[in-house]
Every structure is written in structure tokens, then in C-alpha cells.
Amino acid sequence: MPLFYNTGMRWLAAVTLVSVLAAQAPPGRVRSLRILVLSSMLADDGVGEWGFAALVEVDGRRLLFDTGNRPTTVLENARELSVDLKNVPEVILSHNHPDHTGGLLTLRREYPEALRRAHVGTGIFWSRPGSRGEQNPMIDIRKEYLVRGGVFVDHDRAVEIYPGVWLTGPVPRVHPERNFPGGGRVESPAAGLVEDTVPEDMSLVFDTERGLVVLSGCGHAGMVNTLQFARSKVRQAPFYGVVGGFHLFEATDQQLDWTGARLREMGVQNFLGAHCTGIEPVYRLREKLGLGRGSALVGGVSAEFTLESGIRVRRLR
């Protein structure tokens, strides 16, 4: 249950408790975290689309996680929400798909001093040949981004990019979750032309005193695979928050039951399912996790997750 109340001394007590927890957090733990959704299908404010992006503010640092689908969606939504992106130095691209990379160049052109460093997972630039030619948009995006002074940082393993802030890098597929589109092919340097399982898919993990928080773009590596890998690399802790897209909109009832059981075992306390998670899967997982309307919701544009108050939405409930 979020430590946030609207009136009276309970609100003051809650804020005071949060401040004490932050002050007591040991080195290497995140003390302050805000995740604001800037691209998703539904929108409390702004414009919805099939895509995902979120602004992350963590311990005084700001970064963008994915850039939406249409070139101007994140730019326009940020303006409508009075969010200034010109001092966001870094961007994380969870994988190559256009619904996560489509706004990168527009934002780079609009804010030439921002988003100068892009973190990516190994495999994001691999060729995806199809019947109509190359299907990987990042091949062309890479060229212009570099011309405009951008730098790509390629990650082939989990890494702590800031104190308490981890990138998973490509996630091992321990469980046979197929949370990715079928039919595609990718040219792997080691294996040649193989099924495209989106091998570069990666997520952000925040280590906080309340537990781990995961931010995912699509979770193509599998929701359970991603969370279990996060615990293996960061620490064995419950998940205070799980936020983002998890590509469950086509999952069967059996798959959702299995996923929900695993998430409950890992102690998920707040779940904000956006983008490709799907609406019905969010409600099914809410039931399986034993969560309420305040701690398991569909994530639309302007939805927030913070350490202080958990999930905060406006009208989409």
C-alpha cells in the first residue's frame, strides 16, 4: 500500500517516514525515483499510440527510457505535461522495434544538447532481413544519430550505470516465455540467420530500500525471465514496483496464470502495465497477485510511479 495520503496528519507521517527511509538507505541504493509515462496506447493527457517511452528521474539524474513510435509523440506529450527534456543527457533503447525508437531522431534534432548518449543491448543493430528488405530501423537511425554527435554504448551484460541503477543487458531465456512477435529473422554473427527472439531486449532495475523496481519496454525476454535475472544480478529482494510494457496482450489464460504465480512468489507489490502488456492481462495479474485498484493499474500517458506514493494515475482507473 503506497505511503501517500491526501489529508491530515497521516499524510505528514507518511512523508516523514519516507524521508527517514531515504536518509537511512545505504550507499548503492536509490533514494529518490520517479517514472513518468510519455508514450503508451491510452492517455490521461497527451496523445496515445502503440509505443512506449518514460522519463526517469533518479537521485537527481534524468534519463529517457525508449522514445515512442511516431516521431513527435514524446515531444508533444512532454510539452503538454510541462516536462522539459532539454537537460536529459542519456537515453536507453530497450530494443530495436520502431514503437520504441521512432522518436529518437526528432528529439535529438529538437534538443541538440540532450540525449547525446544512447545505451543499447548487443544485437540491436543486427540485420533483420524480410520480404520487403531490411526490417531493422536502428540501422538507419544509427547513422544519423552518429552524424548528429550522438554516442552509442553497447551492453552485452548486466551493468550498474549509476549507484543502485542497473541495466540488465540481454536477458537469458531460462523459461520458455515467447513474449515476442513470431516470424521474424535476425542475422546473428555467431549463428547466422535465425529466429528473431529480440535478443537485445533489456530493462532497467532500481535497487531501493523498499525492494527492486523494474522498468521494461516490451519485456520480449519474458517477464519472469527479466525479473528473475534482475534478482540474480542486483540482489534477492521483493519487487516494490514493476512498470512498463511486457507483451502479454496475446497471452493465453494458462500463460497469465503461470506468470501471475511466479510474480506472486517474487513479491510484486505494485504493477503498472503499459503498452503491449494489454488491458485484460493487467486485471488478470492484479487478481493473481492479490493486489488492489491502487497498486495494479493500466499505464497510460501521464501515469507515474514514485517511491513515495507508488502508482499515481489521473482518470484512467
Percent range for β-strand residues: 25-35%
* Euclidean distance between termini CA atoms: 16 Å
Structural class: alpha/beta
Strand order of the largest sheet: 8-5-4-3-2-1-18-19
Order of helices and strands: HEEEHEHHEEEHEEEEEEEHEHEHEEE
Task: Supply database-style keywords.
26% helix, eight-stranded mixed β-sheet, 19 strands, 26% strand, alpha/beta, disordered N terminus, 8 helices, 317 residues, seven-stranded mixed β-sheet
Describe this protein's structure.
The protein contains eight helices and 19 strands. Strand 14, helix 6 (223-233) and strand 15 (239-245) form a beta-alpha-beta unit. It is an alpha/beta fold. Helices cover 26% and strands 26% of the residues. Strands 8-5-4-3-2-1-18-19 form an eight-stranded mixed beta sheet. The chain has a seven-stranded mixed beta sheet with strand order 9-10-13-14-15-16-17, with helices on one face. Strands 6-7 form a two-stranded antiparallel ribbon. The chain is globular, with a radius of gyration of 19 Å. The two termini are 16 Å apart.
Task: Summarize the entry for a quick read.
The protein is an alpha/beta fold and 317 residues long. It contains eight helices and 19 strands.
